[in-house]
Amino acid sequence: MIIKKICMLGCFTLLLSGCWNRTELNEIGITSATGFDRTGNDWVATYQVIVPSSITSNTGGGSGSSQPAVNVFSSVGRTISEAANLSNLENPRRLYFAHNNVVVIGKEAMDQGINQLIDTYLRTAESRETVWLIVSDQKAGSILRKLIPPEKIPGTSIDQILRKEADNSSIFPPATIFDYARTMKSDAKAIGIPIITVSGKGNTEKEKTLETMDTYKEVSQANKLRLSGLAIIQNDRMVGRMNQHESRGLSWIINKVKGTVISISTSEQKREEPIALTILTSKTKQHLVKSGDHYVMNIHVKAKANISESESKLNLSKDTMVKQIEDQAGKDIKEEITASWKIMQRLGTDLGGFADTVHQKYPKHWQEIKDDWKNEFKKMELNIHVKVIIKRPGMLQNSFRNLD
């Protein structure tokens, strides 16, 4: 009886199929970043594919493998999917996008709009809508060919730069594929996307070094990739940009400040006697009020901070002096918000998403003004209220130079 059962079990085992649709690891090209440019009506797709054998080395280019950790190549197609498919003509591995970290958009592509790209990412199961979007004044393919010492995989480095900047500086609020899709289908139809550029003295030869392993042999790179601004996108087109000052003002408005450092001065000469405040927490609340046929948005910012550096002559042991610093910090934050607001009103770009608030709170009136929201937005007033609370002045009551 036992022998009979064993024979039957053996027969059933032979009938069982294996993993018929399995894909071996050495058959796929894990993509860490992608870039998109336009040439006429065609898409130029650039892929940054990880080289697994190079990842095992200890450092970027010192010891271990001298091979770059990524391989970058481009393909051209009438559609994005066609471009990816045509990559098989030169790439021995099937592109795998589940671990893609960032999508870089070249200026020409952004000028023509990226709705087609968003459709591809939302339609394909393998691609993730949580991938970061970033804009470049240069070709996206050129950006993806740049290495970022000391890290080995540039796509992962850009991902970490965006995350760390959002948590610690909060200057350029990052945006994902999902954020872009949601905003373009909202009432506001406007969003900010960080801009990445190659900084340096414009030396072409030095910039080319970033595309070779020689860049890991330098202690300090003459050129490097860095976030330089915020692209203002409205109705799928880039209509302007913000600098650091203006972009952080937007972060205050939309409650995206997680942590940052602001430098203020209690002196009449703003560059003298600086004080650095490290923002610990920040909370922004919006309150919309209808005034006649127009609207007033009240912005209430409450921030808690520590004094991390001081050259001021103020005696921080006195509450009145601390209050003076808090008031000045509030004024400086208000200036940043005002600078951002002026850009938005001049361009008629509702980066704060106020249109959605109007639609929800006053649905009947929204139906009357939605087709002319751009002009209506330019008439909107913004009332800014900022309160800064200093939690700790630090271990010194006075600045070091003023100690007796």
Listing every helix as H and every strand as E from the N terminus to the C terminus, the arrangement reads HEEHEHEEHHEHHEHEHEEHEEEHHHHE
Helicity level = 25-40%
Main structural class: alpha/beta
Tally of strands: 14
Rg calc = 26 Å
Q: So how many helices?
A: 14
Query: How many distinct domains?
Result: 2
Beta content comes to 25-35%
Provide the residue-averaged pLDDT.
87
Q: Mind explaining what this structure looks like?
A:
- By secondary structure, the protein is of the alpha/beta class.
- The chain has two domains: about 25-240, no CATH class; about 245-404, Nutrient germinant receptor protein C, domain 3 (GMP Synthetase, Chain A, domain 3, 2-Layer Sandwich), CATH 3.30.300.
- Helix content is about 35%, strand content about 30%.
- It contains 14 helices and 14 strands.
- The protein is globular, with a radius of gyration of 26 Å.
Question: What would a concise description of this structure say?
Answer:
With 404 residues, the chain is of the alpha/beta class.
Q: What characteristics describe this protein?
A:
404 residues; four-stranded mixed β-sheet; 31% strand; GMP Synthetase, Chain A, domain 3; 14 helices; ten-stranded mixed β-sheet; 14 strands; alpha/beta
What is the element layout, followed by pairings?
Layout: H1 2-15, E1 28-39, E2 42-50, H2 52-55, E3 70-77, H3 80-86, E4 94-96, E5 102-106, H4 107-112, H5 115-123, E6 132-136, H6 140-144, H7 154-168, E7 175-176, H8 177-184, E8 190-199, H9 204-209, E9 224-234, E10 237-242, H10 244-253, E11 260-265, E12 274-291, E13 294-310, H11 319-347, H12 354-361, H13 363-369, H14 373-379, E14 381-392
Parallel strand pairs: 1-4, 1-5, 5-6, 6-8, 13-14
Antiparallel strand pairs: 1-2, 2-3, 6-7, 8-9, 9-10, 11-12, 12-13
Helix pairs in contact: 5-8, 10-11, 12-13
